[in-house]
Amino acid sequence: MSLSQYVEQQQAIVDAALDRMVPLETHSPQTIHKAMRYSLFAGGKRIRPILCMEACRTITDNSAGVEIAGGTLELIHTYSLIHDDLPALDNDDLRRGLPTNHKVFGDAMAILAGDSLLTLAFEVLSKLPGASGEVRANLVAELASASGTVEGMIAGQVRDIEGERMPPTAERLHAIHRAKTGALLRASVRMGAIYGGANQQQLAALTQYGEHIGLAFQIVDDVLDVEQPSEKLGKTAGKDVAQQKITFPAVYGLERSKEMAEEELSNAHGALEMFADRAARLHDLANLIVRRNA
């Protein structure tokens, strides 16, 4: 199976799991469920759930149900995008090639849609079928930490806002993106490992992999914001420059940023050495993250 076929297959598995998780649009109150589903099923790459699923398969052949755990990462990711796009934050009109949630449903409903996806993620994990109470608790803790204010996603978002129009230093840059983007990508891999019953050595290796691909993902994202048009990205291009955000090209320049992405890719591959052929798809996903053009 080719990589593109594999990704399409995994996306379909994730989408089916998400469809089961989220109340139907006909469920009262209908507006909030329409708003949640509008952004959730707007065509995301599902890279975080797929990383979770594949990390689990790297550890064990018994990965049944891991797509549900992986789906909660997409709930959190989508909530963060809805809130990021709001006028009070990045004030964007386009996401995944469609009008942003608040442009369709209004600011208030967009805020509530994000809140609803956030809370639903932890409800789903708390009831995760086929997992022990200890595993469920560890998954909740992992996702909450990666989403939170102490080196988690929200910490990164705060630093991103506070860093606008400040001198773009390497220290500020890495503090922002280690938390804003890196924490949830690292958690994606760690949650799959936890679900699969990884030992400490395996978890440490996958954590390193997650850290390297998390940084690589953000570097590439920053480069694409400069080089690709909005139509290709599915979101407004050039926003980082317009808002004077601290980005990798702003600190290191485009060419050095591209070199850094390749270095992180090489480090990610190295972190998987102990897994040999079992990590083949994780190698493929790392390549996909760095070599993507949108």
In short:
With 294 residues, the chain is mainly alpha-helical.
Structure notes:
This protein is an all-alpha fold and 294 residues long. It has one domain: Orthogonal Bundle (Farnesyl Diphosphate Synthase). The chain is built from 16 helices and two strands. A two-stranded antiparallel sheet has the order 1-2. Strand 1 and strand 2 form a beta hairpin. Helix 3 runs antiparallel to helix 4 and helix 11 runs parallel beside helix 16. The longest helix has 28 residues. It is globular and about 50 Å long. It starts with a helix and ends with a helix. The relative contact order is 0.12. The model has no long low-confidence stretch (mean pLDDT 93).
The CATH superfamily turns out to be Farnesyl Diphosphate Synthase
Give me the side-by-side strand order of the main sheet.
Answer: 1-2
Number of domains: 1
Approximate shape: globular
What is the highest CATH level, the class? Mainly Alpha
Which fold name is given in CATH as the topology? Farnesyl Diphosphate Synthase
> How many alpha or pi helices?
16
- Rg (C-alpha, Å): 18 Å
* CATH architecture call: Orthogonal Bundle
Helix content: over 70%
Q: Please give the alpha-carbon distance between the first and last residues.
A: 23 Å
Strand content: under 5%
Number of strands: 2
Largest sheet: 2 strands, antiparallel
Low-confidence stretches: none
In terms of topology, how is this protein built?
Elements (H helix, E strand, L loop, with lengths): L2 H19 L8 H11 L6 H13 L6 H19 L9 E2 L2 E2 L1 H5 L1 H20 L6 H15 L5 H11 L6 H11 L1 H14 L4 H28 L2 H4 L5 H4 L5 H5 L1 H18 L8 H12 L3
Antiparallel strand pairs: 1-2
